Every structure is written in structure tokens, then in C-alpha cells.
Amino acid sequence: xxxxxxxxxxxASQENVSFFTPLNLVLICAVLxxxxxxxxxxxxxxxxxxxPSTVFRTxxxxxxxxxxxxEGRPVYLAVRGRVFDVSPGRNFYGPGGPYSNxxxxxxxxxxxCGSFDEDMLTKDLNAPLDKLEGLDEEQMDxxxxxxxxxxxxxxxxxxxxxxxxxxxxxx
Length: 171
What we know:
Elements: H1 2-17, H2 22-39, E1 57-59, H3 61-64, E2 76-79, E3 82-85, H4 90-93, H5 108-113, H6 137-153, E4 155-160, H7 163-170
């Protein structure tokens, strides 16, 4: 009888060991991993907020001037009659940036010449727009490169016209 009891005890111990088969171990690991992943999952990605829509409008040198990035306003600049919202590049074009003198202005001549000096800007805001006369082919190519870069990176929010043309459109 002792022999039968020891044989039954031996079989029972083998059944306990059989619980740790490779398949069972894989299943246990899968359950543990799934539980961990569910408990420590990252929050769902937030959807980008809608950017406020911008109305395309006509600017003149006076109406463009306030868009210089000061007091939280957007930063606009014009290149060959197109007005760009360069607010995403506020560090460059906004107050204190290396191109800040172009903010709220027609930057065409300065960009073409590679000069960020104040004398590149039209002083008389009531005068006709700069026709870019006197620029050579290399400078015009440089300006075209800038314009293409702006078209790729920034939204066009309007067009720049002279005060005379602006007044004529209003009439």
C-alpha cells in the first residue's frame, strides 16, 4: 500500500509541474504584458486645435504697418505684393529678431539685396510701391528664392497695394 501511495504522490507532483509548460509560460507573459500596457498606456494624442481662419485682404503700407508682432499682434511682411503671415517665425521676424525691421513692411528690396538695414525700407508710406528697379539678375534670383521659401512655409494673407491704388479700390 505504501508503494501505491508513493506512486500516487509522485504522479500528483508531476501534474503540478506540468502547469509550467512552455505554452502556459507564454500565455502568462502575454496576460502580464497586456495588463501592464493597459495600466500604463499613454493618453490619446490630442488633436490640433483649429487655427483661426484668416481673411485674405488688401493692405496698403499704412494698414500693414501694425502687423509687426508687438503687443501680441501677428507678424506680417510683404514680398513682391504678397502679404505673408510669418508669425510662426516670430523669433526671426518679430520684435527683437534679426529680420524684425521687415515686420509690417514690404521686405522685397532688403531680401533681394541681402541687407537688413533700415534704408532698404520705403520711407514714404504714401509713395508708390518699390518697383525693384536697379536690381540685377542675381538679386532678383535671390528675391525669388525668398519668395518661394515663404510660399512653402507661410500663409499668404493678402496683397499689398500702394496708397493710391488702395484709395481707388475704395471709391
